[in-house]
């Protein structure tokens, strides 16, 4: 019911916005000398760090393409739109399509923003190339302009659920049969999409999902979420969210004495921002299903060392968020598609994608490239890391793990 109401509101608002601004349009180009990328992300507010991290990946990719002569003989320019809500996504997409006349949209840290911004972009005939928004629904809407180069929530749900059986349960000397699991997730289409897959797969594997708890990621107090999970006395706690709410949940769990034998976070909880917010003792052994991390083996992620060197030169240090490398990889795949198509037109770009297929483990983020009928890259898969001795260590897939890395048993 929640999804149906949200979808209806989005369609009404987008229709009104397009009627006010004028629908339709072309992607013929913003000028003779530049190709403009419209980047819609949160650049202010509680989630700004994630939006900045994603955009940094695009900036490194843009620097590379411009240094090599540009795209279709033109320099690439990033034009930013600040959006943390679906409504802001609509207004910023309208502004970038009209006032800024961007050629292509690329994003997005927030699935709910991607949902509305991409619908608005379609009204103007602009491609929306998604690198980071995970919600499964995004590729199921039948939009004529949407392509996702990164993983979906389905992939995150599948890998996290499979890892409970292959990594997490063995770490606590349990079998998945009868394993008690509590699921919590932020309440947008992102968190809901992941939880639906997790619940189905875990139940099919014989686990007992004792509770599924949705929450508002902006809530100042998440004590009730922890209480609901505590009531089920789970062996494993799995939680899907963003950085700030996941940090708050970990803090609250420690305060309320919630200590399941194992914890698996999804989509967040694997950065220095969490490390600064949560004591090491409360992070040790925690698994996180996320994008590929900086420690991944070059053999699985060719180009990762070059990306990290370019990032350090531009921004100093290593990326804080693994989303940055996924965004960088997605932008490079976009540029390759535009060059192959000879155009920024959505239909032309979609048409050439089958000619650009790559095997899994062919890019800096470990992705391959093979798009299905809904223009979802089916070879963009997440990885699993574990907090060990104050740092994250890649433990899945085995081919991506650094030499000698392995999951540790729960302490």
From TrEMBL:
<dbReference type="InterPro" id="IPR000709">
    <property type="entry name" value="Leu_Ile_Val-bd"/>
</dbReference>
<comment type="similarity">
    <text>Belongs to the leucine-binding protein family.</text>
</comment>
<dbReference type="Pfam" id="PF13458">
    <property type="entry name" value="Peripla_BP_6"/>
</dbReference>
<dbReference type="GO" id="GO:0006865">
    <property type="term" value="P:amino acid transport"/>
</dbReference>
<dbReference type="InterPro" id="IPR028082">
    <property type="entry name" value="Peripla_BP_I"/>
</dbReference>
<keyword id="KW-0813">Transport</keyword>
<protein>
    <submittedName>
        <fullName>Branched-chain amino acid transport system substrate-binding protein</fullName>
    </submittedName>
</protein>
<dbReference type="InterPro" id="IPR051010">
    <property type="entry name" value="BCAA_transport"/>
</dbReference>
<feature type="domain" description="Leucine-binding protein">
    <location>
        <begin position="34"/>
        <end position="388"/>
    </location>
</feature>
<keyword id="KW-0029">Amino-acid transport</keyword>
<feature type="signal peptide">
    <location>
        <begin position="1"/>
        <end position="20"/>
    </location>
</feature>
<dbReference type="InterPro" id="IPR028081">
    <property type="entry name" value="Leu-bd"/>
</dbReference>
<keyword id="KW-0732">Signal</keyword>
């Amino acid at each position: 019911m929640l999804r149906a109401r949200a979808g209806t509101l989005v369609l009404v608002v987008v229709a009104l916005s397009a009627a006010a601004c004028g629908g339709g349009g072309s992607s013929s180009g913003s000028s003779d000398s530049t190709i403009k990328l419209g980047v819609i992300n949160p650049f202010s507010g509680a989630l700004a760090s994630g939006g900045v991290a994603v955009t940094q990946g695009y900036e490194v990719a843009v620097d590379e393409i411009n240094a090599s002569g540009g795209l279709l003989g033109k320099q690439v320019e990033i034009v930013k739109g600040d959006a943390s809500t679906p409504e802001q996504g609509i207004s910023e997409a309208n502004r970038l399509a009209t006032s800024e006349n961007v050629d292509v949209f690329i994003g997005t840290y927030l699935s709910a923003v991607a949902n509305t911004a991409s619908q608005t972009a379609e009204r103007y005939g602009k491609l929306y190339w998604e690198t980071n928004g995970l919600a499964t629904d995004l590729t199921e809407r039948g939009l004529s302009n949407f392509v996702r180069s990164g993983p979906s929530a389905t992939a995150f749900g599948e890998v996290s659920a499979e890892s409970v059986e292959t990594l997490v349960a063995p770490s606590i000397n349990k079998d998945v049969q009868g394993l008690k699991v509590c699921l919590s997730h932020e309440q947008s289409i992102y968190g809901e999409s992941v939880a639906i897959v997790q619940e189905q797969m875990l139940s099919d594997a014989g686990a007992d999902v004792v509770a599924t708890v949705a929450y508002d990621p902006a809530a100042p107090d998440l004590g009730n979420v922890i209480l609901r999970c505590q009531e089920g006395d789970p062996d494993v706690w799995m939680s899907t969210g963003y950085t700030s709410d996941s940090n708050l949940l970990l803090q609250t769990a420690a305060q309320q004495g919630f200590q399941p034998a194992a914890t698996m976070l999804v989509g967040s909880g694997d950065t220095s921002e969490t490390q600064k917010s949560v004591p090491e003792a409360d992070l040790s052994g925690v698994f996180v299903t996320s994008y590929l991390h900086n420690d991944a083996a070059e053999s699985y992620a060719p180009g990762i060392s070059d990306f990290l060197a370019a990032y350090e030169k531009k921004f100093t240090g290593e990326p804080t968020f693994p989303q940055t490398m996924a965004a960088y990889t997605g932008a490079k795949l976009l540029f390759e598609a535009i060059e192959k198509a000879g155009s920024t037109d959505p239909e032309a770009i979609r048409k050439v994608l089958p000619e650009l297929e790559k095997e899994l483990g062919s890019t800096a983020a470990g992705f391959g490239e093979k798009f299905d009928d809904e223009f979802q890259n089916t070879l963009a898969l997440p990885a699993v890391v574990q907090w060990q001795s104050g740092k994250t260590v890649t433990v899945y897939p085995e081919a991506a793990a650094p030499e000698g890395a392995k999951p540790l048993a729960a302490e």
